[in-house]
Design a protein that fits this description.
The chain has 2 domains: 314 residues, ABC transporter type 1, transmembrane domain (ABC transporter transmembrane region fold, Up-down Bundle); 99 residues, P-loop containing nucleotide triphosphate hydrolases (Rossmann fold, 3-Layer(aba) Sandwich), CATH 3.40.50. 61% of the residues lie in helices and 6% in strands. The protein is built from 20 helices and 6 strands. Strand 3 and strand 4 form a beta hairpin. Helix 2 crosses helix 6 and helix 8 packs across helix 12. The site of adenosine-5'-triphosphate has 12 residues, from helix 14.
Length: 523
């Protein structure tokens, strides 16, 4: 349950993960950005409509025109409705594109995870993958939604409000931009603390998921040793860390709000003060004073919020970095894909094979030499941990390495795509892992899920499984349960063997898969 506390520090270059996330938006870029723009323009449109309304009412009042007041109200409704339609349409388009991008992101993430699951850093624990596909992907995909919307809304606000304020009065324009820049600088200070809090939160969250999945997968053992209390307690430190980080983030948000409020006050004081002075000294028309405070605070808060949105993007960026660690990992099946070379017979030779697991300190296999002629049955014997399982997995091509010194019927492993290489082997692993599917589906997986009923039955018969399957109430449609939990150890092994046999591969590789069988069926 050690935490993988790497990447905890904020790094400047991490912003690249923000842009990397947009690779999933690319196919839907047009509806996404058009919708985003429509959606984001609301922040400016509403204050703008209100300012135009109040200015026009004020003008009507000062020129004592009751029709002018009515017309202003009509104008307000017309502007409002004219704005609503593209706004709602924009939200719809943007959301649709965003949901598709999120789906694609998760699809790629899951695929990368399955591909690299053998020995990448994340494969050490299923909890890491569960956290990545759920929380990390969800947090990362926020870069598509609110912090970016916030950012755009406020950039649009700054542009349009500046035009309005500078057109009304240049002096007011400069004052507002100056206050806005102070706001931006203040909010910018929160980027680093927020990035760090978010990084640590995501790591702690992954650790929590790991802890839970660890406890669940060992539920039987925990009960057998009466360790329920201790197991339940092991969850608490991470949970407590999440609490601490949550409080820290809340505090940062409070400070962000505090500065935004202060900037807003300052803007109102300056715009009324300076505006009042300009009106009182006849340098500005009175009714324009109705427009300035609202437009000035749209402008200054625009700057403030851009800084804030940048800080708030740090959580999603931290998650995007975690997600890309999996997405960018080199696919185990990517190398030499598509090379389809046939072997000439099935004599296997291993020449000077050494093998080290990715994160291991020392080599698990050292200088192995082996010749196995075609049609021979060979057993490997060795102490526990001596590397028998490793050797078998290397031979059947589960690990991508240069120069493993493997050769099958004249075909070198280096020349073959791993997928092509694996076609030659049917493998029953030491744990006889089954999936939470029916017996039929589990066996059929040996042939890519395409085995016919007859083939399944024939394989089961050869694996001495047909008899006991026939006695089950639902026969071949019986569910195996999670990890094959509804079957006995020997039954699981027989099904795993049937799954290997149905592949009809030229070479059968058993990793102690008959240990739970009686001697009769072992033959
Ligand atoms: N995924 C892995 N990552 C790192 N090291 C591993 C991994 N799997 C096995 N090892 C290490 O490689 C060595 C060989 O393990 P292996 O499972 O091949 O032994 P074995 O001979 O099959 O043992 P047993 O008879 O108990 O099944 C051991 O020291 C083990 O700790
Ligand atoms: Mg083994």
């Amino acid at each position: 349950m050690n935490s993988s506390n790497q990447d905890i520090k904020y790094e400047k270059g991490d912003n690249k993960y923000f842009f990397k996330m947009f690779r999933f938006v690319r196919p839907y870029a047009l509806p996404y950005f058009f919708g985003k723009f429509m959606h984001s323009s609301q922040g400016f449109a509403l204050p703008f409509i209100l300012s135009v309304f109040s200015t026009s009412v004020m003008y009507a009042i000062t020129s004592r025109s009751i029709d002018g007041v009515y017309n202003s109200i009509l104008l307000l409704f017309a502007m409002f409705i004219g704005f609503m339609i593209p706004f709602i349409f924009g939200i719809y388009l943007n959301n649709m594109a965003e949901q598709r991008a999120i789906r694609d992101l998760k699809k790629h993430l899951f695929r990368s995870f399955v591909r690299n699951n053998l020995e990448s850093a994340t494969s050490k624990h299923s909890g890491e993958g569960i956290a990545a596909i759920n929380t990390d992907a969800d947090v990362a995909s926020q870069v598509y939604s609110w912090p970016l919307s916030d950012f755009l809304i406020n950039v649009i606000n700054i542009v349009f409000a500046s035009i309005v304020v500078f057109v009304v009065d240049v002096r007011m324009g400069f004052a507002a931009v100056f206050i806005g820049l102070i706001g931006f600088a203040l909010q910018r200070r929160f980027v680093e603390p927020l990035a760090n809090v978010n990084r640590r939160w995501l790591t702690a969250n992954a650790d929590t998921v790991k802890s839970v999945s660890n406890i669940f997968s060992g539920a039987m053992t925990i009960r057998a040793f009466n360790m329920q209390e201790k197991a339940a307690k092991s969850f608490e430190p991470q949970n407590d860390q999440l609490r601490q980080l949550g409080i820290k983030e809340g505090l940062i948000t409070a400070w962000q709000n505090f500065f935004s409020l202060k900037i807003n006050w300052l803007t109102l004081v300056v715009s009324f003060g300076l505006g009042g002075f300009l009106v009182a000294t006849d340098r500005m028309a009175f009714h324009l004073l109705m427009m300035l405070p609202l437009m000035c605070s749209t402008l200054t808060l625009g700057f403030d919020n851009v800084g804030r949105a940048y800080a708030n993007l740090q959580g999603p960026i931290a998650a995007a970095k975690r997600v890309h660690k999996i997405l960018d990992a080199r696919g185990a099946m990517s190398k030499k894909d598509g090379v389809q070379k046939d072997t000439n017979g099935y004599a296997l030779s291993v020449n000077g094979l050494s093998f080290k697991y990715m994160d291991a300190e020392s080599e698990a296999l050292q200088d192995i030499n082996l010749e196995i002629a075609e049609n021979k049955m060979v057993a490997l014997v060795g102490e526990s941990g001596s590397g028998k399982s490793t050797l078998l997995r290397v031979i059947i091509g589960l690990y991508e390495r240069e120069d493993l010194g493997l050769n099958l019927g004249g075909l070198s492993f280096n020349e073959s795509s791993t997928q092509n290489w694996r076609k030659n082997f049917a493998y029953v692993d030491q744990s006889c892992k089954l999936f939470d599917m029916t017996i039929k589906e589990n066996i059929s997986m040996g042939k890519g899920g395409k085995a016919t009923d007859d083939e399944i039955r024939a394989a089961a018969t050869r694996a001495a499984a047909d008899d006991f399957i026939g006695q089950l109430e639902e026969g071949y449609d019986t569910s195996c349960g999670e990890k094959g939990s509804s079957l006995s150890g020997g039954q699981k092994q027989r099904i795993a063997i049937a799954r290997a046999l149905v592949k009809k591969a030229p070479i059968l590789v058993f990793d102690e898969a008959t240990s739970a069988l009686d001697t009769q069926s072992e033959r």
